[in-house]
């Protein structure tokens, strides 16, 4: 079924959302595709920021706690911490990747008795190394769907904003080992709604199938796959050639497209 036909079906049904813990038809379809692709239970929410907030709550972060985050990145990472009245503590970044600099070990100096979680951020198609710690780790992979080969952190968050790899108009997702806990938290007991709507899930599902699972469309064949643009610019602008891929990831061309 084509995207517009699917949206018409939702409009004709009048079922724009579903307040049950499990979600509506298209939310389930999108979640199933994401879970299969990422090889881990994945739950849809209404934004990447919501995914971060719920992950922090799942990790036990509360008011007054500290969360280590990279000193550089999109403001939503910090805002998710502030939304729970916790304190962001900033770690140095690697100037080559703009991700948190894990290898220099200075981030360990930021650990305290108040630290409850660490957020690492995958930025501009580059993947952050995973800290070696027993502390709960949240991976802000909002720019990295299609990049990471496996979910390494306790909670991995994605975004489906129009500028991201997969566009759902608005939306996000969380991959973790406790999907029912996430489903319960996406509709908070105090009335905060973080559910994904059916039309957003439908758009996300179709774009995911088109961009991740199937062959490119005719116009994409004409323009060339984004990976080819990425390699062209990378080799042209960098004297050292393409950025190396980590064992657990493949760099994506997010900011080259």
Folded structure, characterized:
There is one protein chain. The chain has helices at residues 3-13, 25-38, 48-58, 75-83, 179-185, 198-213, 218-223, 226-237; strands at 42-45, 66-70, 87-91, 115-121, 137-140, 155-159, 172-175. The protein is of the alpha/beta class and 257 residues long. It folds into two domains: 3-212, Type I PLP-dependent aspartate aminotransferase-like (Major domain) (Aspartate Aminotransferase, domain 2); 216-256, no CATH class. The protein has a seven-stranded mixed sheet with strand order 1-7-6-5-4-2-3, sandwiched between helices. The longest helix has 16 residues, at 198-213. The radius of gyration is 19 Å and the shape is globular.
What's the short version?
The protein has helices at 3-13, 25-38, 48-58, 75-83, 179-185, 198-213, 218-223, 226-237; strands spanning 42-45, 66-70, 87-91, 115-121, 137-140, 155-159, 172-175. The protein is an alpha/beta fold and 257 residues long.
Topology of helices and strands:
Blueprint: H1 3-13, H2 25-38, E1 42-45, H3 48-58, E2 66-70, H4 75-83, E3 87-91, E4 115-121, E5 137-140, E6 155-159, E7 172-175, H5 179-185, H6 198-213, H7 218-223, H8 226-237
Helix pairs in contact: 1-6, 2-6, 3-4
What is the subunit organization of this protein?
Answer: single chain
Per CATH, the architecture of the largest domain is 3-Layer(aba) Sandwich
Low-confidence stretches: 218-224
Distance from N terminus to C terminus (CA atoms, Å) equals 27 Å
Over the alpha carbons, how many angstroms does the gyration radius reach?
A: 19 Å
Secondary-structure-based class equals alpha/beta
Order of helices and strands: HHEHEHEEEEEHHHH
Proportion of β residues?
5-15%
């Amino acid at each position: 079924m084509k995207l517009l036909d699917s949206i018409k079906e939702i409009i004709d049904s009048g079922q724009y959302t579903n307040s049950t813990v499990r979600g509506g038809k298209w939310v389930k379809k999108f979640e199933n595709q994401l879970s299969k692709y990422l090889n881990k239970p994945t739950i849809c929410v209404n934004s990447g920021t919501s995914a971060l907030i719920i992950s922090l709550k799942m990790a036990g972060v509360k008011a007054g706690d500290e969360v280590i985050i990279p000193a550089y990145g999109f403001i939503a990472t910090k805002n998710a911490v502030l939304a729970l009245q916790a304190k962001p503590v900033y770690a140095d970044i690697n100037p080559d990747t703009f991700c948190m600099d894990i290898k220099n070990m200075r981030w360990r100096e930021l650990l305290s008795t108040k630290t409850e979680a660490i957020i690492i951020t995958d930025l501009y198609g580059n993947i952050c190394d995973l800290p070696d710690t027993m502390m709960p780790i949240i991976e802000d992979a909002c720019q990295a769907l299609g990049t990471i080969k496996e979910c390494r952190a306790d909670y991995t968050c994605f975004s489906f904003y129009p500028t991201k790899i997969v566009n759902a108009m608005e939306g996000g997702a969380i991959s973790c080992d406790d999907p029912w806990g996430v489903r319960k938290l996406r509709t908070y007991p105090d009335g905060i709604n973080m559910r994904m709507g059916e039309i957003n899930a439908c758009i996300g599902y179709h774009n995911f199938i088109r961009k991740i699972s199937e062959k490119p469309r005719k116009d994409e064949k004409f323009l060339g796959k984004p990976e080819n643009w990425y390699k062209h610019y990378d080799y042209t602008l960098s004297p050292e050639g393409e950025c190396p891929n980590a064992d657990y990831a493949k760099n994506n061309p997010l900011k080259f497209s």
